[in-house]
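We were asked to recover a plausible sequence for a given structure. The inputs and outputs are reproduced exactly as logged, with field labels preserved.

PROBLEM: sequence recovery
POSITIONS: 519
GIVEN STRUCTURE:
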């Protein structure tokens, strides 16, 4: 993936200090006059203009996410200056209820250290399946009224969800379609599968600000759920962590929630590629393992039979860009060599994940049910998505960004069932506990170009292997620890063999030299 770099210098023009920023992008240079730090002109009262700084308390970048329970949601917005309060006013026809939250200063990591205040308010005990109006702000300034339809609660309803990734500030081809879908109540929720704005950190965070304005007409009306992508990594993902508040996330960038009959898991694939030294990839793995075990229990699957995981980087793809998913042993899939531990595919297989949604590749690709690179259809090969024997993967990274498309290899692998380079987004309709319908909307052609039914008459682990019961006192029903020890043992044996081989070789050379010296 490509990035934009900055070079900052300070110059003087007519005695005034001016920040000159050269933005280099594809050999194009733009001169931005971003700040005048000293101005000699005084007004008629003898005051410097800097004695009266501009202030802005008006709310901006309003967006909502689901709360930690089914009748609550999080409202987040930004102000340039700090306000005394962070308030949401909400009601049916009038703003009758008030909820108070908190704010926190966010300082961008760029040269200008631009700051803003991020406000978050938890709104709870809302009436489900009803239209509400709300406004956010404080005594210093209020937003316009927004209208939202609250989702139904519990598992017994059929939500429609927009899924997409890799949508930028530039070339956001799908954005108008998603905006209209939110305005017309076509979608109950949107899931942005990583890579925002391209990139939020650029121009001292101003590109992120503009992007938040672009998605406000979606995210202020329906829950806008997210996960991080590789384009968010700058300054330790600080723009992503500050701007998007997700239920139970607490800055870890992974969380779980329910929506209709679906248990969703949002994961950070970026822990497999950045900041490995902080151990978050292990923390996430153990969390995911524990939460999937719980979600796959008989009690939980009776309430939320569908399990869907979304993260940015795919486990499989058939692209030409040499990304990790084009390799045989993808890190997110099998983990890290030499032991190949911490990969997520075994967790998906063992705990019956029904659908995995990815982005990163700037295209759409639908895979046949797959595990360990093997196609695992249902009992009838002519209907591979009916009671499949492994998770189904889709890649939806074609919402539109400045990097355009990622090409495909000419001859797709057998497990790649449909591919398209059209810009677009995915629509998932959870019809009931057994039927899930997925469509791919092409905005190039303004029509549905792919659709399939995922049918599951039972939801459970795909792994039919019998566990060795005498090991239960040591590690319960999970052989993961035992397999790890065996891999480590094999690795140590291999090192010993190499050591003995090298040692014998050295002895042979020494003996040969001794023979020559005697001669």
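RECOVERED SEQUENCE:
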């Amino acid at each position: 993936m490509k990035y934009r770099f900055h070079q900052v210098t300070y110059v003087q023009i007519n005695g005034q200090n001016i920040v000159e920023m050269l933005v280099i992008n594809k050999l194009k240079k733009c001169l931005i006059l971003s700040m005048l730090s000293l101005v000699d002109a005084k007004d008629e009262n003898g005051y410097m203009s800097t004695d009266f700084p501009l202030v802005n308390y008006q709310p901006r970048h309003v967006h909502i996410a689901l709360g930690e329970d089914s009748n609550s949601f999080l409202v987040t917005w930004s102000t340039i200056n700090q306000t005394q309060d962070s308030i949401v006013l909400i009601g049916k026809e009038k703003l009758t209820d008030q909820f108070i939250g908190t704010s926190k200063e966010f300082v961008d990591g760029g040269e200008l250290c631009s700051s803003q205040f991020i406000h978050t308010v938890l709104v709870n005990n809302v009436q489900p399946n009803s239209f509400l109006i709300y406004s956010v702000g404080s005594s210093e300034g209020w937003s316009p009224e927004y209208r939202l339809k609250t989702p139904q609660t519990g598992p017994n309803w059929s939500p429609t969800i927009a899924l997409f990734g890799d949508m930028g500030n530039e070339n956001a081809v799908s954005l108008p379609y998603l905006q209209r879908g939110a305005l017309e109540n076509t979608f109950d929720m949107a899931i942005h599968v990583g890579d925002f704005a391209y990139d939020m950190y650029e121009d001292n965070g101003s590109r992120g600000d503009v992007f938040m304005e672009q998605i406000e007409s979606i995210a202020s009306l329906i829950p806008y759920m997210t996960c991080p992508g590789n384009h968010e990594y700058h300054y330790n993902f600080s723009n992503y962590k500050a701007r998007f508040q997700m239920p139970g996330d607490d800055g870890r960038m992974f969380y779980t929630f329910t929506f209709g009959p679906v248990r969703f898991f949002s994961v950070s694939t970026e822990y497999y590629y950045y900041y490995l030294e902080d151990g978050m990839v292990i923390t996430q793995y153990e969390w995911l393992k524990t939460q999937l075990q719980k979600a796959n229990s008989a009690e939980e699957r009776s309430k939320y039979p569908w399990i869907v995981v979304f993260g940015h980087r795919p486990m499989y793809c058939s692209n030409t860009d040499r990304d990790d998913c084009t390799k045989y042993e993808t890190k997110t899939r099998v983990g890290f060599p030499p032991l190949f531990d911490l990969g997520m595919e075994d967790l998906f297989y063992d705990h019956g994940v029904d659908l995995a949604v990815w982005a990163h590749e700037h295209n759409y690709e639908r895979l046949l049910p797959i595990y360990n690179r093997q196609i695992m259809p249902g009992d009838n090969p002519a209907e591979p998505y009916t009671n499949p024997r492994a998770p189904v993967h889709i890649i939806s990274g074609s919402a539109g960004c400045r990097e355009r498309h990622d090409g495909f290899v000419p001859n797709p692998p057998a497990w790649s069932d449909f591919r398209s380079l059209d810009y677009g987004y995915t629509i998932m309709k959870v019809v009931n506990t057994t039927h899930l319908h997925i469509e791919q909307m092409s905005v190039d052609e303004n029509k549905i170009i792919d659709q399939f039914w995922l049918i599951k008459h039972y939801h459970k682990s795909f792994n039919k292997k019998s566990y060795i019961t005498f090991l239960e006192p040591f590690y319960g029903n999970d052989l993961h620890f035992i397999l790890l020890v065996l891999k480590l043992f094999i690795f140590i044996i291999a090192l010993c063999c190499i050591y003995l081989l090298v040692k014998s070789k050295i002895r042979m050379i020494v003996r040969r030299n001794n023979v020559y010296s005697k001669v």
